[in-house]
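Why this split exists: single-chain examples teach little about how molecules sit against one another. For that reason, every record in the complexes split bundles all components of an assembly together and asks for one structure covering all of them. Below is a record exactly as it appears in the raw files.
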Amino acid sequence: DIQMTQFPSSLSASEGDRVTITCRASQTISGYLTWYQQKPGKAPKILIYTASSLQSGVPSRFSGSGSGTDFTLTISSLQPEDFATYYCQQSYMTPWTFGQGTKVEIK
Amino acid sequence: EVQLVESGGDLVQPGGSLRLSCSASGFSFSNFAMHWVRQVPGQGLEYVSAISSDGGSRYYADPVEDRFTISRDNSKNTLYLQMTSLRPEDTAVYYCVQGGGKEVATRQTVDHWGQGTLVTVSS
């Protein structure tokens, strides 16, 4: 199985901060990488698909980059509604696998 | 608008059985592979099972192999997960997920998630 290593596992940031979350695959996954935002009691919400494509309706402050094994999710200016847990996921190979999650908390 | 609506989650005793359903609408259900992903409350996401668009190919994660059966009825636009010999560690929210391809093993996008249904295994 492809292992997805996501870091940091948590971070504290202030409104307006630029936030970067990294995800590393144990082998190449080309661009089959999805980023999610999840809030308590809710289903994961797709933010970015195929590594860098912004899901419809998602604010442009979210962006994704990378290919192969190294990927990044960036929030350019953190807003109050962005405090949540973020996950990466590969769909290059079955079984799909997920990063451990990054909890973004208020500083 | 694509909708995936799971149902069937419940409290069940260890060793018991349960069938989850996922009703799909807003897309051509019979053209896409479908997947189940679960999440223990407060923990991460775990891939459970998948089925190809025509039902001919299936995948099961090791923890559920031989206990869970995935199936679909394309005439009813519905995905199922039959769970038997349930264990406390199967307690989780189960999500139905639409993939972007027809087959289970091919690389594909992840297109839509349902809202989830909670399965609790406890005596």
